[in-house]
Amino acid sequence: xxxxxxxxxxxxxxxxxxxxxxxxxxxxxxxxxxxxxxxxxxxxxxxxxxxxxxxxxxxxxxxxxxxxxxxxxxxxxxxxxxxxxxxxxxxxxxxxxxxxxxxxxxxxxxxxxxxxxxxxxxxxxxxxxxxxxxxxxxxxxxxxxxxxxxxxxxxxxxxxxxxxxxxxxxxxxxxxxxxxxxxxxxxxxxxxxxxxxxxxxxxxxxxxxxxxxxxxxxxxxxxxxxxxxxxxxxxxxxxxxxxxxxxxxxxxxxxxxxxxxxxxxxxxxxxxxxxxxxxxx
Length: 281
Hints:
The protein is α/β, with parallel strands linked by helices. 43% of the residues lie in helices and 14% in strands.
């Protein structure tokens, strides 16, 4: 890509579905337009026909994510890393099935324990947790916050970052404080699907031009993502896998070299301890 920026290009959050979606093919699309590194998030278990009832049920989705991450690494100039966790919407699916909010919390915490096993073994890079982005009852909200706090405890125990799926907004200093209380560094909490400015966690900014410019102007650490869903019934949702490389080329044309280094090299190293330059072929 002739106008590609002289830096690695990382998509901090997308899904590659090796069963129902395009899987490694989507990573090939990403690489074809200059993408070098990506963080692949597991899809929720129900995408693979699994209604979780015990801790081991989470392994189906985790193993699919690990498998497709290895496949993506094989086609990238850099590499892919897996981020494993429990989607916060699971709490609603469980309570609809008759679980109490507390029972749902406990099962989701067990799922995070399983995800943390893969972090401990080096197979996964980080954890994912959060709370619903839609209206829920107070007991479900409390249960969800309990799940998220447990993820922070695991992040502290395993010295890893935690990506969050939450409601929208820019003020999450209280959540970052929960992480600090659990023994995590605040900057290792990542607000996935973030706006250009976020207080508390490190923003993983959805690759929208206006929000990226807000992040650049803020001059704070940030990363870029597409939240690509890899669902053949929703092609390109949320953003297609070529978007981060293309937005990076656009920022390069605008002269924002420092911001690109921030998003693709410095912040990933600071948050995850990964070296996107050393891992380029």
